[in-house]
From TrEMBL, chain A:
Family named by the database record: Belongs to the bacterial solute-binding protein ModA family.
Keywords from the UniProt entry: Metal-binding, Molybdenum, Signal
Secretion signal span: 1-27
Domain of life per record: Bacteria
Name of the protein this chain belongs to: Molybdate transport system substrate-binding protein
Native organism: Nonomuraea muscovyensis
PROSITE patterns reported for this sequence: PROKAR_LIPOPROTEIN
Pfam families assigned to the protein according to its UniProt record, in alphabetical order: SBP_bac_11
Automatic annotation (TrEMBL), chain B:
CDD domains with a match to the protein in the record: TM_PBP2
Keywords: Cell membrane, Membrane, Molybdenum, Transmembrane, Transmembrane helix, Transport
Organism superkingdom: Bacteria
Stated name of the protein: Molybdenum transport system permease
PROSITE patterns named among the record's database cross-references: ABC_TM1 (PS50928)
Database matches in InterPro entries: MetI-like, MetI-like_sf, ModB_ABC, NifC_ABC_porter
Gene Ontology MF terms in the entry: molybdate ion transmembrane transporter activity
Function: Part of the binding-protein-dependent transport system for molybdenum; probably responsible for the translocation of the substrate across the membrane.
């Protein structure tokens, strides 16, 4: 009994495995009656706002589903260039969008939001940080994003504008990881986006600083040229850039373009 | 008894010799053959992809970059120290699990192997909660000794050891169970103390298992990513090991990531291929 069962299990697994390798995604978006599924690749910092906008979009277009792939903009850009099936790309920096437009995967991106850095400190602020200069202290443990990712590039720009040199203890791979180190109290301060401070809802305190204005980060969005659901993709971009979209983004702490 | 004798003894005879195996291979059922080949392709093709896409013309130039060398050196040092630590703690732990009857032994064994299946990032978070600056033990470590583990090379070693130690423990425990107890009993009846028996009889007897476990442990430590980046952070020269460098290189320079990946792949294959022939078929 068991032996027979396991034999069929192997066959079933093999078939499942082979067919799974063949097609990367369900064929829903290619159905004749117009696409029903739109796939959005978006920067991790857009997780909350885009999830909310996605729900509004589905409500406004019954029968459609919006699927998100949130992650580091640079990683998403690489996935798109390598042929990942995406309809819309929303990046956290013009540089990451540029890698996609350079690869002729998208054209004419528009800026839909802006983000600004703040100093994030733990609630009790153990190192008594209240301005950017305080981060240069040798006893203050600072986390920054790695320069390769947008929040790190912005941090470098802001510190450069302030003429300050900060030696971090770690260069985190994305802004959420950087913020987590503050939330856990492992570092005394970090430079993260204002939106992330707001999203952390009271677990960290944000301190604005004037040089952040020199390192404002633009968020571009574009429909991809190989978008399987081109029409829906354009409508999703319209929603993000609409009044309604702006409201959602502003509430989360993003600046208007 | 010498260790070579012990090894020869403990290598149990395979149930069917080469002749028997050949006979069977002639009637391998396709139901096994097809998925076997598919499985092989599935596991090997990503590695082939790395080789095909590698930027061969600039390979050595990229390898010679100081950041690459720094990350590689850090990886080799931390993986080796982590393995040494695992040997010191893991062999006695394996002995405890294999030779000592105590209540809850099955539960302890399960707990020891948890890091094997735990997502490494979760392991990193758990380490932070215990050994971080505000962690249960970390808090005390900092106030009493001024030691903080996160963001230090020692932190990398701790993260790697946490993830890699189960490989060693499982391997050594298996060797201990397979080893013939009669040699130990004979030594004991001849008047050897328990420690002497362990050192002079048991350890040589299970040496192949210890080596296999140590090598696996080392390879796992070398490839550790999630726990390291979560617990120890990422700073060049201090905590940025090869896997972290690969991940970060992917953000801007995928070609550099491929080169770094190739190095890790090469090291792993050499180690595991050497291991396979010499040790894995022993207990």
């Amino acid at each position: 009994m068991f032996r027979r069962l396991s034999r069929w299990a192997i066959v079933a697994l093999a078939i499942a495995g082979l067919s799974g390798c063949g097609s990367g995604r369900p064929a829903a978006s290619t159905s004749a009656g117009g696409a029903k599924e739109v796939t959005v690749f978006a920067a991790a910092s857009l997780t909350a706002t885009f999830t909310q906008l996605g729900r509004s979009f589905e409500a406004a277009h019954p029968g459609t589903t919006v699927t998100f792939n949130f992650g580091s903009s640079a990683t998403l850009a690489q996935q798109i260039i390598q042929g990942a099936p995406a309809d819309v790309f929303a990046a956290a920096s013009p540089a990451t969008m540029k890698t996609v437009t350079d690869a002729s995967q998208a054209s004419s991106p528009v800026t839909f939001a802006r983000n600004k850095l703040e100093i994030a400190v733990p609630e009790d602020n153990p190192a008594r940080v209240d301005e950017l200069r305080d981060l240069t202290g040798s006893t203050v443990k600072v986390a920054l994003c790695a320069e390769q990712v947008p929040c790190g590039a912005a941090a470098v720009k802001a510190l450069h504008a302030a003429g300050l040199k900060v030696t971090p203890v770690t260069l985190e791979q994305d802004v959420k990881a950087t913020l987590t180190k503050v939330e856990l109290g492992e570092v005394d301060a970090a430079l993260v986006y204002r939106t992330d401070v707001i999203a952390s809802a009271g677990k960290v305190t944000g301190i604005a600083f004037p040089e952040a204005d020199q390192a404002i980060n633009d968020y571009p969005i574009a429909t991809l040229s190989k978008a399987p659901a081109g029409d829906l993709a354009r409508r999703f971009v319209d929603l993000v850039t609409s009044r309604q979209g702006r409201d959602v983004l502003t509430r989360a702490g993003f600046g208007a373009p | 008894m010498t260790s070579s004798q012990a090894r020869r003894h403990s290598r149990s005879d395979p149930p069917d010799g080469p002749a028997g195996r050949r006979e069977v291979s002639g009637r391998l059922p396709w139901m096994l053959m097809a998925p076997a080949v598919a499985g092989l392709v599935f596991l090997v093709s990503p590695l082939a992809g790395l080789l095909i896409r590698a930027p061969w013309p600039t390979l050595f130039q990229r390898l010679a970059e100081p950041q690459v060398m720094e990350a590689l050196r850090l990886s080799l040092v931390t993986a080796t120290v982590a393995t040494a630590g695992c040997l010191v703690l893991g062999v006695p732990l394996a002995w405890l699990l294999a030779r000592v009857e105590f209540p809850g032994r099955r539960l302890v064994r399960a707990l020891v192997t948890v890091p094997l299946v735990l997502p490494p990032v979760v392991g990193g978070v758990a380490l932070l909660l215990v050994l971080g600056r505000r962690g249960l033990l970390g808090q005390w470590l900092e106030s009493a000794f001024g030691i903080t583990l996160p963001f230090t090379t020692a932190g990398v070693i701790v993260a790697e050891a946490f993830v890699a130690m189960p490989f060693l423990v499982i391997s050594v425990e298996g060797a201990l169970r397979a080893a013939d107890r009669r040699f130990e009993e004979a030594a004991a009846t001849l008047g050897a103390s328990r420690w002497t028996v362990f050192r002079r009889v048991t350890l040589p007897l299970i040496m192949p298992g210890v080596v296999a476990g140590a090598v696996l442990c080392w390879a796992r430590a070398l490839g550790e990513f999630g726990a390291t980046i979560t617990f120890a952070g990422n700073f060049p020269g201090t905590t940025r090991t090869m896997p972290l460098a690969v991940y970060l290189a992917l953000e801007t320079e995928p070609e550099a990531a491929i080169v770094l990946s190739l190095v890790l792949l090469l090291v792993s294959v050499v180690i595991l291929a050497g291991l396979r022939d010499r040790w894995v078929n022993s207990p």
